[in-house]
Amino acid sequence: MPRRLLFAALFVALTACTAASADEGLRLPAPAIDAAPAPGEAAAVFAGGCFWGVVGVFQHVKGVKSVRAGYSGGDAAHASYDDVSEGDTGHAESVRVVYDPSQVTYGQLLQVFFSVAQDPTLLNRQGPDSGTQYRSAVFYATPEQKKVAEAYVAQLTAAKAFAKPIVTEVTPLKAFYPAEAEHQDYMRNNPDAMYIVMNDRQKVLGLQRIYPERYTPTWANGK
């Protein structure tokens, strides 16, 4: 994403400040209401700013089998990076996480998402990126996912886990459109890219530090 890399280069100081304040993460309470462990596979879709870093975080969560970058949330019946970047499709950069519910629950994925993958108090922006395409959202695919996600937002709000209100949307999943090949596995393939170093590496380190029981050094499949 040349625009992103150029932006990061021009605003290194600002980006570094953002990373230090927002991407260190904090340990949140476990969800009081969670999905029951089940055999087989399940999928969850989240949006939390640039999908590069969110993919990278979930690729290091134990029990996650694969993570894909993509687009969700809009009314347009198609999605591409160029279209979504203009901010007029309604889609947000998103990730689809396929996981083993017997190893990690939906609620535990939410715990990681709200804690280290993004800042849920930022409206339509994360790090140096702004616009509705970078909004924070949980796209639920089942009534159980909706129940767990809404309950967890209410739990964190009641506990005053954050200094500011949570603005994360909990909304139905309409569709998930996989992103272009160059956006898949981006952090893994480009660990020294300036954008990754300044904005996303801290998130994975936060996962390792705050949730060592959830962290694995092995990368989940990004395809």
Characterization of the model:
It is a single chain. The chain has 223 residues and is an alpha+beta fold. It has one domain: Peptide Methionine Sulfoxide Reductase, Chain A (2-Layer Sandwich). The protein has helices at 2-10, 12-22, 51-58, 81-85, 106-117, 143-158, 186-189, 194-210; strands at 42-48, 64-72, 92-99, 125-126, 129-130, 136-140, 169-172, 176-178. The chain has a six-stranded mixed beta sheet with strand order 7-6-1-3-2-8, covered by helices on one side. It has a two-stranded antiparallel ribbon with strand order 4-5.
- Report the helical percentage: 25-40%
CATH topology: Peptide Methionine Sulfoxide Reductase, Chain A
String of helices and strands:
HHEHEHEHEEEHEEHH
The backbone outline, from C-alpha atoms, is globular
- Known CATH architecture: 2-Layer Sandwich
**Broad structural category:** alpha+beta
Number of domains: 1
User: What is the typical, i.e. mean, pLDDT?
Assistant: 90
Strand content: 15-25%
Give me the count of strands: 8
How is the main sheet built? 6 strands, mixed
Q: Looking across the biggest beta sheet, what order are the strands in?
A: 7-6-1-3-2-8
Distance between the termini: 19 Å
SSE map:
Elements lengths: L1 H9 L1 H11 L19 E7 L2 H8 L5 E9 L8 H5 L6 E8 L6 H12 L7 E2 L2 E2 L5 E5 L2 H16 L10 E4 L3 E3 L7 H4 L4 H17 L13
Helix pairs in contact: 2-8, 3-5, 3-8, 5-6, 5-8
Q: Which structural traits does this protein have?
A:
223 residues, alpha+beta, Peptide Methionine Sulfoxide Reductase, Chain A, six-stranded mixed beta sheet, two-stranded antiparallel sheet, 8 strands, 37% helix, globular
